[in-house]
């Protein structure tokens, strides 16, 4: 069953729509494109085995594609992130455990990013971001869920802490989702 205005999200569509890197053999489709135009401006705040980056996205950039491009460029294997900012035209999701599918909710127009949080791990040896977001709307209401897409307007600021020790995901038999495998 789907909620009007939403669409069931199969596991295959989940990978493509979320901008997560999955090999063609595992997902049955090509890798998502991580456009260099979506690559955020970055500063290294601290180094060592655990690196902390400040990522600055500007108007028109796509957050999930930019995160993936950054992780690939820097060969990141694990981490966590948090952020704030403002976006327009987002796609957030809700996982329906009965259907074992994501329902996609399109949020048109401007929204404040009240909270953006997530993690980074490897899935099939490629970077995989799992990000949730809370959006503040003009009328003071809020919406949130799994972040599939968000176009920046005017900025999104993210602090990404990356670990040098890889963390991996594997498919969970019960849900069909790629869950952390510590």
Indicate the mean pLDDT: 86
Secondary-structure class: mainly beta
State which percent range the strand residues make up. over 45%
Class, according to the CATH hierarchy?
Alpha Beta
Distance between the termini: 33 Å
What ranges have pLDDT less than 50 throughout 5 or more consecutive residues? 1-32
Sheet of most strands: 7 strands, antiparallel
How many domains would you count in the coordinates?
1
The CATH homologous superfamily is called Hypothetical protein, similar to alpha- acetolactate decarboxylase, domain 2
Can you count the beta strands? 9
Rounded to the nearest angstrom, the radius of gyration is 16 Å
Count, helices: 3
- Topology pattern, helix = H, strand = E: EHHEEHEEEEEE
Percent of residues in helices comes to 10-25%
Q: Any idea what the CATH architecture is? A: 2-Layer Sandwich
CATH-assigned fold name: 60s Ribosomal Protein L30, Chain: A
Write down the overall geometry.
globular
Task: Explain the overall architecture.
- It contains three helices and nine strands; from the N terminus they run βααββαββββββ.
- It has one domain: 60s Ribosomal Protein L30, Chain: A (2-Layer Sandwich).
- The protein is mainly beta and 182 residues long.
- Strands 1, 2, 3, 4, 5, 6 and 7 form a seven-stranded antiparallel beta sheet that branches.
- The chain is globular, with a radius of gyration of 16 Å.
